[in-house]
Amino acid sequence: MRIFSSLLIFTVLLFSSCNTERKSLVYYKISGFTQGTTYHMIYAVKDSFNLQDEVDSLLHDFDMSLSSYEPNSMLSKLNRNESNIVDENFIKLYEAATSVNAASEGAFDITVMPLVNAWGFGPGLKTEIDSFLIDSLLQLVGMEKIRLEGNRLIKANPDISIDVNAIAQGFSVDVIAGYFDQLEIENYMVEIGGELITKGLNAKGTDWRVGIDRPEFGNIYPGADLEAIISLSGKALATSGNYRKFYEEDGVKYSHSINPKTGYPEKSDLLSATIIADNCMLADAYATACMVMGLEKSKLLIKATDGVEAYLIYGDEDGKYQVYYSEGFKKYIFKEM
Predict the structure, then answer these.
(1) 82 burial class (0-12, 13-18, 19+ CB within 10 angstroms)?
(2) Beta-strand (E) ranges in the chain?
(3) How far apart are CA 330 and CA 323, in angstroms?
(4) Annotated domain spans of the chain
(5) In which order are the strands placed within the sheet that holds 236-241?
């Protein structure tokens, strides 16, 4: 779904590589490529069996539903107005996106695609930006301009297009976790492009350990420079930041976090936002919302939202890294670096 290998700010730390069995369980590992990035999954079963083919098939089906980079996907056909029929995946995503849009006062918005393309962060070609273009594109942005009637998407303007990249990757994590749940797998970690969800315990019998990367430009290798290690079980985690997915033009760095209200990439002191929630779709969406809203508004958002905790890294006036985390996030911190 996303071109870049990882625009999120953490990596899974696998402390159990030398011990693949816990009690009578075998911890099986699979990995591969999807959505322009990688995936890594660990699941515990009584007998070794490889679910890679099944996982790859589910991820392919997911791309054919919600990928904006797959020309024959349902989403691409919606954006080209070849059809207005949506599937169950889109309905679930739309409901979650509408909820986060309202909570964030419009900072999260899946109709932002025209702006994303114009700035060169989508499947379309980057265009020459000026205030007139931004003003015209803003007329196509706003969740109030789309609605669902049953399984049909109604647009106020046919030129409106949908970008789900800030929520769909987290959703795909939930889809695989749901499949593992159907198989009654009680211990697993599912990670796609840095977004993840955990259940049960790892091979050492402890909660799963997750590293949060330090948000430095040029830190392209997840896990190379960590800010903290998180201990997680039964929760999902997603991170959004601007230091990996950006481009530089005439000495100016433009981030992928587009503000749906202004039409411009957001500039703020907030460098990365890590969110813990019950499912990865919401964690993904709230992480994006925080990057658009900035530090102070993100604090208020998290405080007002039940079941969502945040770890925010920002720069102070001296350019040094500072950290804010919500009260509920504290219990998940295993170690700060």
Answers:
(1) exposed
(2) 10-12, 21-22, 25-34, 37-45, 146-149, 152-155, 188-192, 195-199, 208-213, 226-232, 236-241, 246-249, 252-255, 270-277, 309-315, 321-325, 333-336
(3) 12
(4) 10-60+166-336, 63-165
(5) 21-22, 25-34, 37-45, 188-192, 195-199, 236-241, 270-277, 309-315, 321-325
Assign a CATH topology to domain 10-60+166-336: T-fold (3.10.520)
Q: Which two tokens stand for residue 70?
A: 């797959």
270-312, pLDDT tens digit by residue? 889 999 999 999 999 999 999 999 999 999 999 999 999 999 9
pTM over 0.85: yes
- We find that the CATH architecture of domain 63-165 is Orthogonal Bundle (1.10)
Which helix (DSSP H) or strand (DSSP E) does residue 117 occupy? helix 113-118
Residues in the chain: 337
Same fold flag, 10-60+166-336 and 63-165: no
